[in-house]
Amino acid sequence: MLATRYYLQQTSPDQLKPAKKPDIDVEFVQSREPSPEFNRYLYTAVGSDWYWAFRLDWDWQRWMEWLTEPGHETWVAWVRGTPAGYAELVRRDSEVEIENFGLVPSFIGRGLGGYLLTKVLQRAWAIPGTTRVWLHTNTLDSAQALHNYQARGLEVYKVEEQVEKPQADGPKLEPWPGANRAAPPSPESRAASG
């Protein structure tokens, strides 16, 4: 499928425009123990709606090699003990790439995306020697993704059209049957209506 890919960057921590903390109990925690099972869960839970398939055929050993690669960090947003989203940072020399970033579908629309990205960018800039933080997204990702990145101060430095995610031409990926359904209402909205 032809898609537009956007490359975005910050070259100074002063470019960060923080989002406010949402009105829910959220923690931002580094996953310090490499766990292929956990990271594969995060990858499929967050990425299945956006055609993330690059790592689906990785075996356990390949996941472990990725997670223990020098400069790799996994950060998870937790809401009341439940993983709500995550990011993987990869430091190479003085640059930090936000390799994967997103929310579990049931947490989309609850004010977490901007806050999570703020925390991820703050962490990237806190890594000693960082001179640039960058990522890329494309038109197959969430419609809010590009806006969120730009709202946090990331600037587009390159745009290209390319065949992106060949699996997008087929049926949508699902980590399990029925996973690509509308997100359930938040606990707050269920409590307010009940």
Automatic annotation (TrEMBL):
One protein family per Pfam: Acetyltransf_1
The organism named in the record is Kibdelosporangium aridum
Q: Does the keyword Transferase apply?
A: yes
Membrane-traversing stretches: none
* Name the UniProt record assigns to this protein: Acetyltransferase (GNAT) domain-containing protein
Q: Does the keyword Transferase apply?
A: yes
The cross-references to Gene3D superfamilies, in alphabetical order and at most eight, read: 3.40.630.30
Q: Ranges of Low complexity compositional bias?
A: 179-194
* Keywords recorded for this protein, A-Z: Transferase
